[in-house]
């Protein structure tokens, strides 16, 4: 298996099935965890020096922090309902407690925090929805925690790629701290496949090909993107979902397309408009 793939495991006593830390990934900013909680199970964690964005991937819960409590949040019972999720932003030096009202799949997105902003609910109505691309590179975007919304480090987005389509395309990268042209952002991709016995294909490669891996990605795998371009393909018959977490020294998404393939977007958009 590629060193860039982190597979899910059976739940431990807390319900954790997947954990990526800066230390395990070999980078400096992004952490990512997934918990599968049974109805009635409770998870409590301190945030320490990290901020967190709790994304209710599926199921319903009551979520508490130092400042607030949100009862009975959650709406979709499967990510492929394609409705925006409920999420909760939690600052550093805080805690979160999640009580599962139904069976629950919870993503915990982590990055360095400064305690600048209070905890808050991110309801579905607060999530920006857009269609990006055209033709067979069209995909649906849910901007859960974009740079226009307050946070210290985190950027969080989820993407739905129809069967047979490509996303994160044209291939783009954000691995240079070279603003205003490009920002350095580490990134994780948490994949879900519909039907769940299918697969996605993801390539991660750099200009000099010192990193060049093409991976078969299964349901509930995470792909690490430390650098390079990182397109995704959904094979015919299988829808692909992924949750992206990004963070770096500056909280802005400035990317650079692969010049060999940048023309594809212009061509698809021109066809769509004609």
Please tag this protein with its features:
mainly beta; 2 helices; seven-stranded antiparallel beta sheet
In round numbers, the mean pLDDT is 97
What characteristic shape results from the CA principal axes? globular
Give the helix/strand class.
Answer: mainly beta
Helix content estimate = under 10%
Can you count the beta strands? Answer: 25
The succession of helices and strands, N to C, reads EEHEEEEEEEEEEEEEEEEEEEEEEEH
Q: Quote the beta fraction.
A: over 45%
Gyration radius (Cα, Å) is 18 Å
CA distance, first residue to last residue: 44 Å
Q: Which segments are poorly predicted (pLDDT under 50) over 5 or more consecutive residues?
A: none
Number of helices: 2
Reading side by side through the largest sheet, how are the strands ordered?
A: 1-22-19-24-14-13-12
Largest sheet: 7 strands, antiparallel
Give an overview of the whole structure.
The structure is a single chain. With 274 residues, the protein is mostly beta strands. The chain contains two helices and 25 strands. It has helices spanning 22-25, 263-273; strands spanning 5-6, 16-20, 31-37, 42-46, 50-58, 61-64, 69-73, 87-90, 95-100, 104-112, 120-122, 128-132, 139-145, 155-161, 166-167, 172-173, 175-178, 182-184, 186-194, 199-205, 212-218, 222-225, 232-233, 239-247, 256-257. The protein has a seven-stranded antiparallel beta sheet with strand order 1-22-19-24-14-13-12, with no helix packed on it. It has a six-stranded antiparallel beta sheet with strand order 2-3-10-5-8-11. The chain is globular. The model has no long low-confidence stretch (mean pLDDT 97).
